[in-house]
Design a protein that fits this description.
By secondary structure, the protein is an alpha+beta fold. It contains two helices and seven strands; from the N terminus they run E-E-E-E-H-H-E-E-E. The mean pLDDT is 83.
């Protein structure tokens, strides 16, 4: 059985579970993993600028020690990204560089766990005041392009 499929809606910039009739759809595990990694709010680190005093993060980070013991141990293994911080940054090349590095960091587990052999990221600003990124993940020798864009919630 595959993972529950999550789909990204570019019109709303949101993700949701896909339905198959009256049940949940499965499949597209690679994209589902990417969406969870990108759009789960990673916890802020000391020194990060947090304007709303909420360091974010997810409760299940506490259970990373319960992962498969055959997998490599990753210090401070946390799920998610800090892309939520991008909207507090200037629209400058340094922000795009930070965004690229953050996406690579949050998807790096795929390379460590052998899910992907390479990941490329091409971030951009969108005309609507948001951000976006084209991500190319090579898994099983096949590169697959994903393109996401999102704007700050109001």
């Amino acid at each position: 059985m595959g993972d529950i499929r999550i789909v990204f809606d570019p019109a709303t910039g949101t993700g949701d579970f896909a339905m198959a009739g009256r049940g949940l759809a499965t499949g597209n595990e690679l994209e589902t993993a990417i969406l969870i990694s990108l759009f789960t709010d990673g916890q802020a680190d000391p020194g990060d600028i947090v304007f709303d005093a909420d360091p974010r993060g997810v409760w299940f980070d506490a259970y990373s020690a319960l992962e498969d013991p055959a997998l490599p141990v990753i210090a401070n293994d946390r799920i998610g990204s800090k892309l939520w911080q991008v909207f507090n940054m200037p629209r400058a090349q340094s922000t795009l560089n930070w965004m690229r590095d953050e996406i690579l960091r949050c998807l790096n587990w795929m390379k460590i766990d052998g899910v992907a052999s390479s990941i490329e990221v091409f971030p951009r600003f969108t005309g609507s005041g948001g951000v976006g990124a084209q991500i190319i993940v090579t898994a099983n020798g096949t590169p697959t392009k994903y393109d996401y864009a999102w704007a700050q919630e109001t």
